[in-house]
Amino acid sequence: MNYKKNCMNYWFPKLVEIGVPTPKTVMIDMDRVSTKFVEGMREMFWMRELNEEQIKALVTFRKILEEMGHRIGYPFFLRTGQTSYKHEWSKSCFVQNQALLMKHAQTIAEYSIMAALKGGLPINVWAVRKIIETEPIFEAFLGQMPITKEMRYFFKDHEILCSHPYWPEHALEGHVHKDKDWKEKLSGLNTLLDEDAALLKKLTEKVALRFDGYWSLDWLKGKDGQWYAIDMATGDDSYHWQGCPNRKEKNMGSRNKPRRQKKKKKKEKKKKEKK
């Protein structure tokens, strides 16, 4: 996992410089504010006693987040440099008011610390982003996340390789709330108009010129018809649609990998252990 390049403070400033549409965003790297912040968050997660420096760092973090929230306005989208834990939407990245802010930040931090990676995900960089008004077709996952029109593009060495709808059907199977027609709706959502395809190709090519190597770039369509660049990561660390000739089976990446697929793999592993 390439934490440095996957971090929002690496790729987001470049997107702003390029001039493609992005949601209004403010960021902070707490490592530049206090060397005790990450340590304090981890100690708090493990319910260990915090020292004065760690407590001071967490109080400072709260004040900074609150100020960032006031600058963007509630409700807003909260994330670290690495993840938003968006599947828990209403309990994580979607912050409706200041009273819920630190609870949501803690939820994202806990998920990051417990991520199935050595040492977890970095939690030093935090971002507050303006909510993009969209037209969701249904809600999914425990956090009642609104599912809306998104596309993922892959490019390598400044040239586009392929593009795919963000939500494959199997990623949502068993997670959609009270909608029997969700598969039909998803099929329509995953269909891209020619004019949208032409625009995204043009915008992605513009971004690809500024990034060396292999990357994924996520686009989200707003209710106003505008496409926004919302996320990036190295291609090897990004989920790639099954059946695509550009997908690397041995090194596919786990970013946004469908949960249902993960569960299946766990079951297969248990069967092998029984044998």
Say how many strands there are. 10
Major sheet: 4 strands, antiparallel
- N-end to C-end Cα span: 32 Å
Task: Please state the CA-atom Rg, rounded to the nearest Å.
Answer: 19 Å
Number of domains: 2
The CATH architecture of the largest domain can be given as 2-Layer Sandwich
Beta-strand portion reads 15-25%
Task: State the helicity in percent bands.
Answer: 25-40%
Main sheet: strand order: 1-4-2-3
Mind explaining what this structure looks like?
It is built from nine helices and ten strands. A hairpin with a 2-residue loop joins strand 7 and strand 8. It folds into two domains: 17-130, no CATH class; 138-266, D-amino Acid Aminotransferase, Chain A, domain 1, CATH 3.30.470. The chain has helices spanning 3-6, 8-18, 37-45, 52-72, 98-113, 169-172, 182-189, 194-208, 259-274; strands spanning 25-29, 76-80, 94-95, 125-130, 138-140, 145-147, 150-156, 159-165, 214-221, 227-234. Helix 3 (37-45) crosses helix 4 (52-72). 33% of the residues are buried. With 275 residues, the protein is an alpha+beta fold. It is globular, with a radius of gyration of 19 Å. It has a four-stranded antiparallel sheet, covered by helices on one side. It has a four-stranded antiparallel sheet with strand order 8-7-9-10. A two-stranded antiparallel ribbon has the order 5-6.
